[in-house]
Amino acid sequence: MADVARLAGVSSQTVSRVSNGFPGVTEETRRQVLDAMRELGYRPNSAARALRRGEFRTLGVITFSLSTMGNIRTLEAIATSAAQHGYAVTLLPVAVPTQDEVNGAFSRLGELAVDAVIVIMEIHLLDAATVSLPPGVQVVVADSDAGDRYTVVDTDQAGGARDAVRHLLDLGHETVWHLAGPEDSFAAQRRANAWRATLTEAGRTPPPPVRGDWSAESGYRAGLRLADRPDCTAVFAANDQMALGLLRALHERGREVPGDVSVVGFDDIPEAGSFLPPLTTIHQDFAEVGRLCVEGVIGKMRQRAQGVTEHGTTLVPTRLVVRGSTGTPRVR
Predict the structure, then answer these.
(1) Peptide bond into 44 cis (omega under 30)
(2) Residue 131 and residue 139: Cα distance in Å, rounded?
């Protein structure tokens, strides 16, 4: 640092301010210091800086599944937002969602020197007390029903499902069938509960749900069963991947979409507009979920420094995107 200061003609304190990104340095001086760093091959020692500050500028992310589209897009959004705040991300997938595995994951992240942790927990764990997070660690949980014990950021699952069902009822369909997600999924349960409640409030009897596992293949298998029911004119699929398999099954069975059966998905994946027909779906703002997770966990670190602890749930709104897969039912 002293060599850089001599070459740039500034003080070591100015070099420190530039290397740490602090304000109060003119642009001309900043350029001089950066030019001197490049000429001398100087790079700040991040480990020493972390020890001095007591922070590592790294966020840990624990996730129990990298196979679902929602988790992948949430993770991408977290990494993007963390980088904008000057943080790196350390990812630690957990294969088996048990208390021992969670404790082990937090221990490993501690060894990897992270400042706080974001947990992408889409399955029922925290609300059932099957798993608890270690005390003293600053944590934000994405996509879970963790109640008041943790800070939670999630999509408004129920609101999106209500919009999907109401859209189909408003088109004139007598009822709406549901292609549900896996039983251990918090998001799937919230969407299924809202589907059922919306039909009941409208005076309609909910048909028995057909369950998949988020994959297009499970949507196809479920779709073959639904296609054989002439009373099925509208289906709300709990995600776009299962809706894709459903569309294939309906096509193979000779059921036109939306002429014979209207279909609504959930997620609004980038390919949804390229389905045949283009898929009406519920848009999730994954970028906003990721941003709020990162800002939430950074805020919790500041709260800890001030001796404050706050929890709560933030719901990110959804919106209905109407495309070609929904329409009025044919007159029988």
Answers:
(1) no
(2) 14
Helix (H, G, I), strand (E, B) or coil at 267: strand
Q: Where are the alpha helices (DSSP H) in the chain?
A: 2-8, 12-19, 27-40, 46-53, 69-84, 99-111, 157-170, 186-201, 216-227, 240-252, 286-305
Helix extents (H) in 136-215: 157-170, 186-201
Sheet with 280-283, strands from edge to edge, namely 210-211, 177-180, 234-237, 262-267, 280-283, 319-321
Amino acid at 264: V
If you ran DSSP here, which 8-state letter would residue 316 be given?
E
Pairing of strands 210-211, 234-237: unpaired
Beta-strand relationship, 280-283 and 319-321: antiparallel
Q: What are phi and psi of 154, to 5 degrees?
A: -150, 160
pLDDT in tens, 191-247: 999 999 999 999 999 999 999 999 999 999 999 999 999 999 999 999 999 999 999
Residue of 203, 160, 175 whose CA lies nearest to 316: 160
Residue in this structure with the two tokens 């602090």, named with its chain if needed: 22
pLDDT tens-digit map of 37-94: 888 888 765 545 544 555 678 898 988 777 777 788 889 999 999 999 889 998 888 8
What is the Cα Rg of the chain in Å?
Answer: 25
